[in-house]
């Protein structure tokens, strides 16, 4: 595995992210079967009735429709997209690359997710540390990704690695952030003719 040197977190387009995400994109970034695989992961890992944090979110969160949660809080980059999300009980525009610290109390949430967006984080270890802070003991952070991206905005390390390397990189984020246990690397790709779907999941220690 490559050392996590600063140049690995550089991007082809270093212009402000709020400009890139200024216009809403009411689209899905993976196909329906891959979305169903994300939903199944959430069904398995997120406790019914819990408080869920959806990071780098959009107009849809892929949460199981039949399960009620106490709250679903979104952080994302586009106000219109977040406001349109029907599962949200609260949301705010927040650029994690500019400010990794999360504006929440310790141990507030029972689960957190980053769906097909982890490749855009330029300060991922700081973000993973913050996720550990705001999650209760034993709560999961579910990271999912596929093979699609905005190539000018992903970090250099993502462009250098294959799918297996991406999984190992995310597992390393968990390890280096500390406060995480039970790290799982999963391939939940639905079928050869659909978008692949990979996940790395860990639980807040303590």
Output the radius of gyration: 16 Å
Structural class designation: alpha/beta
- Please provide the ordered H/E string of secondary-structure elements: HHEEHEEHEHHEE
Number of domains: 1
Count of distinct strands? 7
What strand order characterises the main sheet? 3-2-1-4-5-7-6
Describe the largest sheet: 7 strands, mixed
CATH class: Alpha Beta
Low-confidence stretches: none
Silhouette: globular
The helix fraction, in percent, is: 25-40%
CATH architecture: 3-Layer(aba) Sandwich
**Superfamily at the CATH H level?**
Vaccinia Virus protein VP39
CATH topology, by name, is Rossmann fold
How is this structure best described in words?
With 206 residues, this protein is α/β, with parallel strands linked by helices. It has a single domain (6-204), classed as Rossmann fold (3-Layer(aba) Sandwich). 26% of the residues lie in helices and 21% in strands. The chain has a seven-stranded mixed beta sheet, sandwiched between helices. Helix 4 packs across helix 6 (163-177). The longest helix is centred in the C-terminal third of the chain and has 15 residues, at 163-177. The protein starts with 16 loop residues before the first helix and ends with a strand. The model has no long low-confidence stretch (mean pLDDT 94).
Layout of strands and helices, then pairs:
Blueprint: H1 17-20, H2 32-45, E1 51-57, E2 71-76, H3 79-83, E3 90-93, E4 111-115, H4 124-134, E5 140-145, H5 156-160, H6 163-177, E6 180-187, E7 198-204
């Amino acid at each position: 595995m490559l050392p996590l040197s600063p140049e690995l977190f550089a991007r082809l387009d270093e212009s402000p992210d709020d400009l890139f995400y200024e216009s809403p994109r009411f689209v899905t970034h993976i196909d329906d079967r891959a979305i169903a695989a994300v939903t199944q992961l959430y069904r398995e890992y997120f406790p019914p009735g819990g408080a869920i944090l959806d990071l780098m979110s959009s107009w849809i969160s892929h949460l199981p429709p039949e399960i009620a949660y106490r709250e679903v809080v979104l952080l994302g980059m586009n106000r219109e997209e977040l406001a349109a999300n029907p599962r949200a009980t609260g949301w705010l525009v927040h650029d994690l690359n500019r400010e990794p610290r999360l504006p929440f109390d310790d141990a507030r949430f029972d689960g957190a997710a980053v769906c097909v967006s982890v490749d855009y984080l330029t300060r991922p270890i700081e973000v993973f540390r913050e996720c550990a802070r705001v999650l209760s003991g034993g709560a999961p952070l579910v990271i999912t990704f596929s093979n699609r991206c905005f190539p000018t905005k992903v970090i250099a390390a993502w462009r250098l690695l294959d799918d297996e390397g991406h999984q190992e990189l995310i597992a390393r984020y968990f390890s280096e952030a500390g406060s995480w246990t039970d790290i799982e690397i999963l391939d939940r790709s639905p079928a050869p003719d659909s978008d692949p779907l990979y996940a790395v999941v860990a639980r807040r220690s303590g």
